[in-house]
């Protein structure tokens, strides 16, 4: 019961702030609502007992990327931004994408009804004590099953960081 | 629908009433603690400048924080005309909320932790406290003032730069534990019998510098550099909102100090906790507290008024009671089970206080950095140093596991690693000062100077 309430609470916040994020004219307000949406998503992760995903969502998206977003937004001249048209009028593309998404969701509903003996997939949560520790599980799959892709990605990120230092070091 | 929501609320309260109560207690008590930290800071500053500091309110100014709080609360609350009202209202709350929330993950003793045994422990504390930056940035933007905006921009640039170095420092300490859980980190130090500050001194140094920069403390207090930016991001804030920012800054100090204590200084462990013949160290807390009490009694006749004398005696009495509480688990076998809780709390608070004392000491000693110097220190020195350190600590650990080293024996491999890291540090510094390069070249790219 508690799980359900928490889920609808966070999901509602995420949806509402996502809508508000698109419709606000002020860019900083949009950014605040995007942060709220990301935090609510993190809350859903936590409600699903994926605490590692929860904190990674917060550290990476909220603490890292959104700080840079807000940083850049502050350098933008807001008065000019306010006078531009708010929505790019790409009706047909938007309609196509929306229909495709709706079709996908509908297909999921339809096929799940066709499966023998079940309606919509019902996921029951395991007892919290029975779940394996979250970060250990993630680490195991990263360092055992997917070692090579993981190493490639981390070398890429390290190169980016070192590159930033080198470029900052260069005396112009 | 209504009943089910009610049911869920009751279910929630039943499961979590104890942590909720603790949380309320912390939120209620923290402003008082912060007030006294500020008093200590002012007294220290006065001492280092050969003054007396606040002396008027209460004996030796002991009631000054309460007077300050009352003054702040009854001040006029000003919102600038062109400010973004909603964001202006939201920003200080965000700052203080993030700082308070991250306190929940900390363990003051083996039993004192609000969010018990969270698997992601230290990441939770670090990640949530990093969100406080939004309070600063949005507050600076919403004030609609150039000084505020400049302070906010400086702050976010500073935080993003130093978070990398701090994270790398945390990683090198976490290599020793293999877990993020705060309790297990301290237990690992107790099992090895050695604090990680000895095994990873370079990481501790990196974290120390980065944590000063992250809390916007002097010498890295550029976001509020008063000689350049009036008061930085706080310029337009007054009264209660201003005090919320203030509270957040000091709460953040407590958070970084606690993280450093947990990871590097052995958390709630007594120094040399596993050495039997040093068990007399258990009397040190008692001795310290009683000494403070005796000093208070000795100073009592010198107080000017009767009320102040009584107050001084009350403080002394409090010290003696605390001394008894600390003595009980050592002497009485009945109180033995409470040893870890009571003494753990004492050692944890002592270490955190020493860390914060170091912050203050630096503040009154070192002049403020210029912004380009700050950025250069972060990106050119600390980040390369911490990356090299992670690498070398990892190598040292692998070597240690081959040689089957434990506890103090690990020093055999980690000390050479630290020495190599130091050599690398000197190399980096030498490259910085390469001959022929004009001294002030970097100042040309100084966007944020005031």
Walkthrough of the structure:
The complex is a heterodimer of chains A (172) and B (450). Chain A is mainly α and 172 residues long. Chain A folds into 2 domains: 2-127, Four Helix Bundle (Hemerythrin (Met), subunit A), CATH 1.20.120; 132-172. In chain A, 77% of the residues lie in helices and 0% in strands. Chain A has helices spanning 2-23, 27-47, 51-75, 78-83, 91-114, 134-145, 147-169. The relative contact order of chain A is 0.07. Chain B is globular, with a radius of gyration of 24 Å. Chain B has 3 domains: 12-74, no CATH class; 83-269 and 364-379, no CATH class; 272-331. Chain B is mainly alpha-helical. In chain B, 43% of the residues are buried. In chain B, α1 packs across α2, α9 (201-214) packs antiparallel against α15 (371-403) and α12 (283-299) packs antiparallel against α13. Chain A binds chain B through residues 1-2, 4-5, 26, 28-29, 32, 35, 51-52, 54-55, 58-59, 62-64, 66-68, 70-71, 74-75, 133-135, 158, 161-162, 164-165, 168-169, 171-172, and chain B through 4-5, 7-8, 11-12, 15, 84, 86-87, 90, 118-120, 123-124, 126-128, 130-131, 133-134, 137-138, 141, 149, 152-153, 156-157, 159-160, 163-164, 180, 375, 379-380, 383-384, 387, 437, 441, 444-445.
Summarize, please.
By secondary structure, chain A is mainly α. In chain A, 77% of the residues lie in helices and 0% in strands. By secondary structure, chain B is mainly alpha-helical.
CATH topology of the largest domain in chain A: Four Helix Bundle (Hemerythrin (Met), subunit A)
- Mean pLDDT across residues of chain A: 80
| Poorly predicted regions of chain A | none
Query: What distance lies between the first and last C-alpha atoms of chain A, to the nearest angstrom?
Result: 62 Å
The helix content of chain B is 55-70%
> Largest sheet of chain B at a glance?
none
Task: Give the largest interface pair and sizes.
Answer: A-B, 37 and 46 residues
What is the domain tally of chain A?
2
Radius of gyration of chain A: 21 Å
Strand content of chain B: under 5%
CATH homologous superfamily grouping of the largest domain in chain A: NADH-ubiquinone/plastoquinone oxidoreductase chain 6, subunit NuoJ
User: Helix count of chain B, per DSSP?
Assistant: 16
Classify the secondary structure makeup of chain A into a structural class.
mainly alpha
Sketch the major β-sheet of chain A: none
The average pLDDT value of chain B, as a whole number, equals 81
The CA-CA distance between the termini of chain B, in Å, is 57 Å
Q: What is the 3D form of chain A?
A: extended
């Amino acid at each position: 019961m508690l799980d359900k309430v928490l889920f609808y609470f966070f999901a509602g916040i995420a949806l509402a702030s996502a809508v508000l994020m698109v419709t606000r004219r002020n860019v900083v307000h949009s950014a605040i609502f995007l942060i709220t949406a990301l935090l609510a998503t993190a809350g859903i992760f936590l409600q699903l007992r994926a605490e590692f995903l929860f904190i990674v969502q917060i550290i990476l998206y909220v603490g890292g990327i959104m700080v840079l977003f807000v940083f850049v937004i502050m350098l933008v001249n807001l008065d000019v931004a306010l006078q531009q048209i708010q929505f790019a009028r790409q009706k047909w593309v938007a309609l196509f994408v929306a229909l495709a998404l709706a079709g996908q969701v509908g297909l999921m509903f339809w096929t799940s009804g066709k499966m023998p003996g079940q309606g919509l997939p019902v996921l029951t949560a395991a007892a919290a004590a029975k779940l394996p520790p979250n970060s250990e599980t993630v680490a195991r799959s990263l360092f055992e099953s997917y070692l090579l892709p993981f190493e490639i990605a981390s070398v890429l990120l390290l190169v980016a960081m070192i590159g930033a230092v080198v470029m900052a070091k260069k005396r112009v | 629908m209504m009943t089910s929501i009610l049911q869920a609320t009751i279910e929630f309260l039943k499961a979590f009433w104890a942590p909720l109560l603790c949380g309320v207690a912390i939120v209620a008590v923290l402003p008082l603690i912060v007030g006294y930290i500020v008093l200590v800071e002012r007294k220290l500053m006065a001492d280092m400048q050969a003054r007396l500091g606040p002396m008027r309110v209460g004996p030796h100014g002991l009631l000054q924080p309460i007077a300050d709080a009352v003054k702040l609360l009854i001040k006029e609350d000003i919102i600038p005309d062109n400010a973004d009202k909603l964001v202006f209202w939201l920003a200080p709350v965000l700052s203080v909320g993030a700082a308070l929330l991250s306190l929940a993950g900390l363990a003051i003793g083996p039993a004192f932790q609000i969010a018990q045994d969270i698997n992601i422990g230290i990441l939770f504390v670090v990640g949530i406290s990093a969100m406080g930056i939004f309070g600063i940035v949005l507050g600076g933007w919403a004030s609609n003032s150039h000084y505020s905006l400049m302070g906010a921009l400086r702050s976010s640039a500073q935080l993003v730069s130093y978070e990398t170095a701090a994270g790398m420092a945390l990683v090198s300490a976490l290599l020793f534990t293999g877990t993020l859980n705060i309790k297990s980190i301290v237990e690992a130090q107790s099992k090895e019998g050695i604090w990680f500050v000895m095994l990873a001194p370079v990481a501790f140094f990196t974290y120390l510098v980065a944590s000063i920069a992250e809390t916007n403390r002097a010498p890295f207090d550029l976001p509020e550099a008063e000689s350049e930016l009036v008061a930085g991001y706080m310029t337009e804030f007054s009264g209660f909102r201003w005090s919320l920012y203030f509270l957040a800054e000091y709460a953040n100090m407590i958070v970084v100090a606690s993280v450093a204590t947990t990871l590097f200084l052995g958390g709630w462990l007594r120094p040399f906790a596993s050495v039997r013949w040093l068990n007399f160290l258990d009397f040190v807390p008692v001795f310290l507290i009683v000494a403070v009490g005796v000093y208070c009694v000795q100073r009592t006749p010198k107080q000017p008024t009767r009320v102040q004398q009584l107050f001084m005696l009350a403080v002394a009495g409090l010290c003696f009671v605390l001394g008894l509480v600390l003595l009980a688990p050592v002497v009485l076998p009945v109180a033995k089970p409470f040893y870890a809780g009571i003494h753990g709390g004492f050692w944890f608070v002592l270490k955190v206080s020493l860390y914060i004392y170091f912050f203050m000491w630096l503040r009154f000693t070192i002049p403020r950095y210029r912004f380009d110097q700050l950025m250069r220190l972060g990106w050119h020195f600390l980040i390369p140093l911490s990356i090299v350190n992670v690498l070398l600590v990892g190598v040292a650990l692998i070597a240690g596991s081959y040689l089957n080293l434990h506890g103090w024996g690990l020093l055999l491999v980690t000390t050479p690693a630290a020495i190599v890291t130091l050599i690398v540090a000197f190399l980096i510094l030498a490259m910085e000062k390469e001959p022929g390069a004009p001294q002030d070249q970097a100042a040309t790219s100084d966007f944020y100077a005031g």
